[in-house]
Automatic annotation (TrEMBL):
Range of residues in the leader sequence: none
Origin: domain of life: Eukaryota
Gene giving rise to this polypeptide: LOC114449442
Protein name as catalogued: Kelch-like protein 10
UniProt-listed SMART domains: BACK, BTB, Kelch
Keyword terms, alphabetized: Kelch repeat, Repeat
Length: 512
């Protein structure tokens, strides 16, 4: 027990040298048994049933290492049904880091958390503390209004007096007019409460008031070719909540096209492509999102343009492409810790203008061109075995395709089949090794950007069969429908996209 400051003080300050029995209040015998076991073995069996009591006991005895073990356990345990409880019991400076993480979990999973029993037991102030946050993650502001109504109606007699206090936090400017008319202005809590009426009617009449919530993720569109076929180094950020693109000023990076982009470890990486003198490059640039400056990191083993890039297990994978003369089947991955590129097994096919994604610990790459033909084939890489396996071919040949993991499936969208520019989309089920068609995009696209942001699949720019486009569409798998989003400021093809999440300076990449 000498490693514990509490016990060290207890044993050394005792006036009775031969004392063998000590009284330690407020610690149960089963908790003391676990603490003694930890003192002698350095390990302890933390379970859901004992974690909170063990945490409190370890904190009261100032056993820092055991407190941290319990915090790590709670962090892994976080889910929509217990995150509020963890947030609540760590309030009194017991574990400030865990308290903050639990609160962020509540905010980022609010739509699920709002249906939990724990949410219904919160105080009005706690509910306000949650729903007032700019970074509350909700796809529609209506979810906030409905959560308030649900909380009030759980104990209506006690809670109706908080209606105006809480409803003032709803951002009406982010709601559809039809929803306000049919759900807000007609709700009994609003119509029966003069303060609520004032809040809602003022906000309804002046819908400029209020601001969007901060998105949980930002879509970046980087580089490419403008309609004049001139290279551009422009970076635009898409705020999905505000449906708005914002130009991101940055210290000049040489423009690139047909490159890959990846977000990893708080940095954006641009991989390969054509550089400013239209030479195929193997160089890799890293963008610091705080300083908005570029830095060159280790180069790939091969020059690659029209390269397929994805992130898996903390590494960036680059596959296929063209070295300026030959379509490539080779593949390699980058380790940020060592700043090294290492080769992996080559693919079955040479693939340029293909696209890839990571899903459930594997990489899927689809379509492309091998110089002779546009490809229908697809294959899967398992990093544990360093092997590629051909999977069922797509229903269409697709070069310049967009491939992305979405809704636990692999989507292949658009491209060129050798005759026509495609607006069709299909989805692969890894469990059945089968493809099926889904709704087609609004327009054809070739060599465009593709990413998933806040539960929807976005396609960005590209060539529509006639001209370079700045248009942006998104797909919702729940409705199997495509909708139009705000256009980019700059139309371009051969751009690359990535999604930023968890940024401490997220507000810098959203509209003011």
């Amino acid at each position: 027990m000498s490693s514990c400051s509490y016990f060290r003080a207890l044993f050394t300050r005792s006036s009775e040298a031969d004392k063998k029995v000590y009284s330690i209040p407020d610690i149960s015998s089963d908790m003391m048994e676990l603490i003694i076991e930890f003192a002698y073995t350095g390990s302890v069996n933390v379970t859901e049933s004992n974690a909170r009591r063990l945490f409190m006991a370890a904190d009261s005895l100032d056993i820092v290492e055991l407190v941290q073990i319990c915090c790590n356990f709670f962090e892994k345990l976080l889910c929509p049904h217990n995150c509020i409880g963890i947030w609540q019991f760590t309030k009194n400076d017991l574990a400030p880091e865990l308290h903050l993480k639990a609160f962020h979990y509540v905010l980022s999973h609010f739509e699920e958390v709002a249906f939990s029993e724990e949410f219904l037991q919160l105080s009005a102030q706690d509910v306000s503390d949650i729903i007032s946050q700019d970074n509350l993650t909700v796809r529609q502001e209506a979810a906030v209004f409905e959560a308030i109504i649900r909380w009030i109606t759980h104990e209506p007699q006690e809670r109706e007096r908080y209606a105006a206090f809480l409803l003032s936090e709803v951002r009406l400017s982010m709601m559809h007019t039809e929803y306000i008319q049919s759900h807000v202005l007609s709700n009994k809590l609003v119509t029966d409460n003069l303060k609520c009426q004032a809040i809602q009617v003022i906000g309804y009449k002046d819908r400029i008031l209020g601001r969007p919530r901060l998105p949980s993720a930002i879509l970046l569109a980087i580089g490419g070719l403008k309609s004049s076929m001139a290279l551009t180094n422009v970076i635009e950020a898409f705020d999905v909540r505000a449906n708005h693109w914002m130009n991101i000023p940055h210290l000049s990076e040489p423009p690139r096209s047909f490159h890959g982009a990846a977000y990893l470890g708080g940095y954006v990486y641009c991989v390969g492509g054509f550089d400013q003198v239209l030479m195929v490059t193997n160089t890799v640039l890293r963008f610091d999102l705080s300083t908005r400056t570029w830095q060159e990191v280790a180069s790939m083993n091969y020059r690659r343009t029209c390269v397929s890039v994805t992130v898996l297990n903390g590494c960036i994978y680059a596959m296929g492409g063209c070295d300026g003369h030959t379509r490539l089947s080779s593949a390699e991955f980058y380790q940020p810790e060592t700043n090294q590129w290492l080769e992996i097994a080559p693919m079955h096919e040479q693939r340029s203008h293909a696209s890839c994604t990571a899903l459930n610990g594997k990489i899927y790459i689809c379509g492309g061109s091998d110089w002779i033909q546009h490809l229908q084939t697809a294959e899967c890489y398992n990093p544990e075995t360093n092997q590629w396996t051909l999977i069922s071919p797509m229903s269409s040949r697709r070069s310049g395709v967009g491939v992305i993991a979405y809704d636990n499936h692999v989507y292949a969208v658009g491209g060129f089949d050798g005759t026509a520019y495609l607006q069709t989309a299909e989805v692969y089920n890894p469990h059945t090794n089968t493809w099926r068609n889904v709704s087609s995009m609004k327009t054809p696209r070739h060599n465009f950007g593709i990413e998933v942001v806040e539960g929807r699949l976005f396609v960005v720019g590209g060539f529509n069969g006639i001209t370079t486009t700045s248009s942006v569409d998104y797909y919702d798998s729940e409705t199997n429908e495509w909708s139009q989003a705000c256009n980019m400021g700059v139309g371009r093809i051969a751009l690359s996209c990535c999604v930023l999440s968890g940024l401490p300076n997220m507000a810098d990449y959203t509209i003011p």
